[in-house]
């Protein structure tokens, strides 16, 4: 076995994402309080937790949108501050509005996700094919020329996912991809994700509940108050009320009562 092969094996076996002891503050508020998280190549990991537990902050720290005050983050075995190969990473941010008044067509938005793979921003045949394929994956080919303003929330989410897929990333990070998405779009997204996973992609998903993605999830990491409280098999959903993140307030409880917490978040 040559030295080169050993190197390749090392690269394949090292985690795609590694967080060790990561702390972050927003304002003066500690939001991540010593997070350890590892995602191996080809794994699909769900990041779960109640509102405000730090899920979005954790993924935003991974892609460098939130500064960390302590700890280490590695991407593909490289410390994040030295990592430059961002075309290997597809990021789908948490969707806030359906369109935000963006005066762009579906194709323009999806093409912007391919820029990191082009040479000097010039779209060649392979780049155009990748954009077309990304649109096909999310079933939006027939809307390619439409302004994104004209899309529903679920369709808009599909466009954001196509934008992330256009660069053919090895790692997909998605923040609540199913939030506010109609059933038809949820099914398209679940199928798209399965195809990516079958093709070898590594996926980190922020989810409020496992829902239709449950069969795809290898491991669940549950946050509470900026700490990891579970890292292991995905919790089994036993009806809506037992889903992670569900803080149940009894309708007859006195005003101001603490939520009755169920499942892993209790
Ligand atoms: N820009 C900010 N400045 C100050 N505090 C913030 C900021 N952004 C988020 N926070 C706070 O940080 C905490 C964690 O927020 P974060 O968005 O990471 O939680 P989350 O688990 O993703 O929640 P959700 O499920 O509601 O999206 C919350 O208490 C939130 O209020």
From TrEMBL:
One GO MF term attached to the UniProt entry: ATP binding
Pfam hit, one: ABC_tran
Residue intervals of the ABC transporter domain: 17-250
Sequence segments annotated as region (Disordered): 241-266
InterPro entries: AAA+_ATPase, ABC_transporter-like_ATP-bd, Metal_Ion_Import_ABC, P-loop_NTPase
Signal peptide: none
Entry keyword set: ATP-binding, Nucleotide-binding, Transport
PANTHER family with a match to the protein in the record: METAL TRANSPORT SYSTEM ATP-BINDING PROTEIN TM_0124-RELATED
Protein name from the UniProt record: Metal ABC transporter ATP-binding protein
Organism: Streptomyces actuosus
């Amino acid at each position: 076995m040559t030295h080169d092969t050993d190197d390749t094996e090392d690269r394949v076996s090292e985690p795609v994402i590694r967080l060790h002891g990561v702390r972050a503050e927003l304002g003066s508020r500690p939001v991540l309080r010593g997070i350890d998280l590892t995602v191996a190549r080809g794994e699909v990991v769900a990041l779960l937790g109640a509102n405000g537990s730090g899920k979005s902050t954790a993924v935003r720290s991974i892609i460098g949108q939130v500064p960390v005050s302590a700890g280490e983050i590695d991407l593909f075995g490289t410390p994040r501050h030295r990592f430059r190969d961002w075309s290997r990473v597809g990021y789908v941010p948490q969707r806030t509005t359906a369109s935000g008044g963006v005066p762009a067509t579906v194709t323009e938005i999806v093409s912007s996700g391919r820029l990191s793979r082009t040479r000097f921003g010039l779209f060649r045949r392979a780049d155009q094919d990748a954009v077309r394929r990304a649109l096909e994956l999310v079933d939006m080919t027939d809307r390619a020329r439409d302004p994104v303003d004209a899309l529903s929330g679920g369709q808009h989410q599909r466009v954001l996912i196509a934008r992330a897929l256009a660069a053919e990333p090895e790692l997909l990070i998605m923040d609540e991809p199913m939030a506010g998405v109609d059933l038809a779009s949820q099914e398209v997204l679940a199928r798209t994700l399965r195809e990516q996973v079958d093709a070898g992609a590594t996926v980190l998903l922020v989810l409020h509940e496992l829902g239709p993605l449950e069969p795809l999830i290898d491991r669940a990491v549950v946050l509470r108050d900026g700490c990891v409280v579970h890292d292991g098999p995905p919790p089994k959903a036993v009806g809506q009320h037992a889903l992670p993140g569900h803080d149940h307030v009894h309708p007859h409880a006195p005003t101001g009562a603490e939520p009755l917490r169920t499942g892993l978040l209790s």
